[in-house]
């Protein structure tokens, strides 16, 4: 499997980008009555945008991708559909990133149809213009070449997944036994990313809980992916 190109995003970046995003929204003259965080990636940016724009009304919707194995194509679904009345309200949908944009488009359509706001606009921290099906109304940063952004709110799950990929690839070449430093070194070499010792430990702990790694005589042994 290809090693995806990754960029580490810090908490400080997130605050700076959210502040910048909020000032673009403010400068446009659009004053939303309610912010809708798209779960899960939009939670932190949405809360920060509330703070920077002095908005009290914050709700959420979970729109997510799932892979339809039979068709091998990505589909977005609204995970917990519910109705609220946003009549006469201006809404702002906030997410971390527009990549293909499919899940955000679905959320927007769902909200327009079921929540009845007077207007919905979309704001994101990052817009991958080469991958996206549309241009969001507001974005802090345009990204021209696709990369995986390692946001602080997916640090553990990404580290876990990246380790799984490394272990599965390396085992094809017969490498199944590692020490902690060897695992970390490989991770940094593959992804050019250092998430810090605590996250490395947590991710390796999860891999053991899931039966993917087992500790034997002080070494981690790869048992295959579940
Ligand atoms: N979610 C969807 N696309 C992403 C990307 N390129 N980086 C981080 N999170 C994402």
How does this structure look, described?
With 226 residues, this protein is of the alpha/beta class. The protein folds into two domains: 139 residues, Rossmann fold (3-Layer(aba) Sandwich); 71 residues, Winged helix-like DNA-binding domain superfamily/Winged helix DNA-binding domain (Arc Repressor Mutant, subunit A, Orthogonal Bundle). The protein is built from six helices and eleven strands. Strand 5, helix 3 and strand 6 form a beta-alpha-beta unit. The protein is elongated and about 65 Å long. The protein binds adenine (ADE). Adenine (ADE) binds next to strand 8. Adenine binds next to strand 8.
Secondary structure elements and pairings:
Elements: E1 6-8, H1 11-28, E2 34-39, H2 43-53, E3 58-68, E4 73-78, E5 90-98, H3 102-114, E6 119-128, E7 138-143, E8 148-150, H4 155-172, E9 177-178, H5 180-191, H6 197-209, E10 213-216, E11 219-222
Parallel strand pairs: 1-8, 2-3, 2-5, 5-6, 6-7
Antiparallel strand pairs: 3-4, 9-11, 10-11
Coarse shape: elongated
Residue runs with pLDDT of under 50 for 5 or more positions: none
What is the typical, i.e. mean, pLDDT? 95
Class of the largest domain, according to the CATH hierarchy? Alpha Beta
Q: What is the straight-line distance between the termini?
A: 17 Å
Number of domains: 2
What is the CA-atom radius of gyration, in angstroms? 20 Å
CATH architecture of the largest domain: 3-Layer(aba) Sandwich
Helix content: 25-40%
């Amino acid at each position: 499997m290809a090693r995806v190109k990754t960029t580490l995003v810090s908490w400080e970046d997130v605050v700076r980008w959210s502040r910048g995003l909020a000032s673009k929204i403010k400068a446009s003259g659009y004053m939303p009555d309610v912010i809708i965080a798209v779960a899960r990636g939009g939670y932190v940016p949405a809360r920060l945008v509330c703070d920077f724009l002095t908005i009290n009304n914050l709700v959420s919707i979970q729109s997510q991708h799932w892979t339809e194995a039979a068709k091998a194509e990505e589909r977005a679904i609204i995970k917990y559909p519910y109705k609220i009345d946003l009549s006469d309200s201006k809404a702002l949908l906030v997410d971390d990133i527009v990549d293909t944009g499919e899940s955000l488009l679905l959320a927007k359509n769902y909200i327009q149809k079921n929540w009845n706001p007077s207007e919905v606009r979309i704001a994101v921290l990052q817009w991958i213009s080469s991958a996206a099906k549309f241009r969001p109304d507001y974005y802090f940063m345009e990204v021209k070449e696709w990369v995986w952004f390692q946001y602080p709110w997916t640090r553990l799950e990404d580290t876990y997944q990246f380790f799984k990929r490394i272990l599965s690839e390396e085992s094809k070449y017969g490498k199944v036994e590692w020490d902690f430093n060897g695992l970390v070194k490989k991770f940094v070499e593959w992804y050019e990313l250092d998430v810090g010792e605590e996250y490395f430990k947590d991710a390796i702990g999860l891999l053991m809980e899931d039966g993917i790694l087992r500790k034997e005589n002080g070494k981690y042994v790869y048992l295959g992916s579940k």
